[in-house]
Amino acid sequence: MRFKLFAFAALALTSTVPALAADAVYEQPLLPPEQQTYSTYDWSGFYLGAQGGYSWNQATILGSDQDIDSGSFGAHAGYNFQYGNIVYGIENDFNYNFEDGGEANLEWDASGRGRVGYAWDRTLFFATAGIAAAGGKVDVPGVGKKDDILIGWTAGGGVEHAVTDNILVRGEYRYSDFGNKDFGSGIGDFGATQQKVLFGASYKF
Questions:
Q1: Is residue 52 within 8 Å of 75, Cβ to Cβ?
Q2: CA–CA gap between residue 43 and residue 119 (Å, rounded)
Q3: For the residues of the chain, what is the DSSP string, one character each?
Q4: Would you say 64 and 39 are in contact if contact means Cβ atoms under 8 Å apart?
Q5: Is 41 exposed, middle or buried (0-12, 13-18, 19+ CB in 10 A)?
Q6: Does residue 145 sit within a domain?
Q7: pLDDT tens digit string along 129-182?
Q8: What CATH number did the domain enclosing 176 receive?
Q9: For residue 14, what are the CA distances in angstroms to 3, 6, 188?
Q10: Overall pTM > 0.90
Q11: Who contacts 97 (Cβ-Cβ below 8 Å, separation ≥6)?
Q12: For residue 120, is it within any domain?
């Protein structure tokens, strides 16, 4: 009888020890640390806006240079792509120039450009370059009158800031060389360059 009790007690002890050992080595799994979220502005998408500023234009006509500075007002549209902090895209703009008058004028200018920049959250620093065109007009009493389109290039840069998720404001400088074109007998070659400072606002869709 004593032997049976001893065997039963030994059996109960051997079945209890592994369970206690298992409880001893069990550890509560560590919960993953809370993920930190960063609020980074997304520059990608289509935008449309308007701008105004001032142009320092210089035209070459009848072998001499003329300053034809003017105010400027226009519109722009473009599309941005974003990869990390790098923002790149395309933009077109058209501007009407309020000339002071004279023998030569640039009535309007337009461009199709690529843009690339670095985004620091809601602020974008960018460079831009592409094709530029301008409407040149010449009216020289006693010599001739003609208007035509000049084609050249433009390059510059600026800074843009997202005031809200949809409203963007910008400041930009561009230099444009519209090349030279033969305006016919009496007038000869007409060429123009431009330095322009623009401030504008856009709506991003």
A1: no
A2: 8
A3: -HHHHHHHHHHHHHHHHHHHHHHHH--PPPPPPPPP--------EEEEEEEEEEEEEEEEETTEEEE--EEEEEEEEEEEEEETTEEEEEEEEEEEEEE--SSEEEEEEEEEEEEEEEEETTEEEEEEEEEEEEEEEEEETTTEEEEEEEEEEEEEEEEEEESSSSEEEEEEEEEEEEEEEE--TTT-EEEEEEEEEEEEEEEE-
A4: no
A5: middle
A6: yes
A7: 999 999 988 887 777 788 899 999 999 999 999 999 999 999 999 999 999 888
A8: 2.40.160.20
A9: 17, 12, 112
A10: no
A11: 55, 57, 70, 71, 72, 105, 106, 107, 108, 109
A12: yes
Does any domain span residue 196? yes
- Number of domains observed in the structure of the chain: 1
Burial of 28 (C-beta count, 10 Å sphere; 0-12/13-18/19+): exposed
Domain span including residue 186: 45-204
| Residue bearing tokens 């009496």 | 186
